[in-house]
Design brief:
There is one protein chain. This protein is an all-alpha fold and 192 residues long. The protein has 9 helices and no strands.
């Protein structure tokens, strides 16, 4: 998927998280986008090699320059998109550092969404470096701007709907219900 789609899905995950987590939407969005940060050196290198404007290659540059998957920078993409990295390295670090599990879940959403949205040689190797490609059905990463904006409307609408449900307390975590009831009881005591 494209970065905007990942960010919106991460924001939805953040919206669903307990309200006590500060900046939960931003944390979810950033966590869901973070596996693609490893692409920055790869993009810049390919952009430089293909004389792309501002070193930002088009999707066609990837299709026309298959040598890029043999370049060392491609290993960063495989590493950041591996369930082994997520489960054995990232999640324990998040747990031990007492960061919110929201970050781990947002990151996982990216990995799961990329499986169907990368096909052919661009397929995801979820157990990298062990091997085994999972062929996807389409290449969402190669969408043009119009397609990105069109398909990003789906999670945007979902986010707005979930935000509405959360704001009007149709969906609440048990801790939020308890806090609301305690605040209500405290305000009644102050009146009496």
């Amino acid at each position: 998927m494209d970065v905007l789609f990942h960010a919106l899905i991460g924001a939805i995950i953040g919206e669903c998280a307990p309200k006590r987590i500060k900046n939960r939407r931003t944390k979810g969005a950033l966590a869901a986008m973070s596996p693609d940060l490893a692409n920055i050196p790869l993009y810049l290198y390919l952009g430089k090699e293909t004389d792309s404007f501002m070193w930002i290659p088009s999707a066609e540059a990837f299709y026309e320059n298959m040598w890029i998957i043999e370049h060392w920078s491609w290993m960063l993409w495989n590493f950041s998109h591996s369930f082994l990295f997520w489960g054995l390295i990232l999640t324990p670090i998040i747990y031990r550092s007492r960061y919110s599990n929201l970050i781990s879940v947002g990151y996982l959403s990216h990995l799961l969404l990329d499986i169907p949205s990368h096909s052919g040689v661009w397929s995801v190797q979820p157990m990298w470096p062990i091997g085994g490609y999972l062929p996807g059905w389409f290449d969402a990463w190669a969408w043009n701007a119009e397609q990105i904006l069109t398909y990003s409307m789906l999670p945007l609408i979902a986010w707005a709907f979930i935000k509405y449900l959360r704001d009007y307390q149709y969906i609440e975590w048990p801790s939020e219900v308890t806090k609301r009831l305690n605040n209500s009881n405290n305000s009644r005591r102050q009146i009496n």
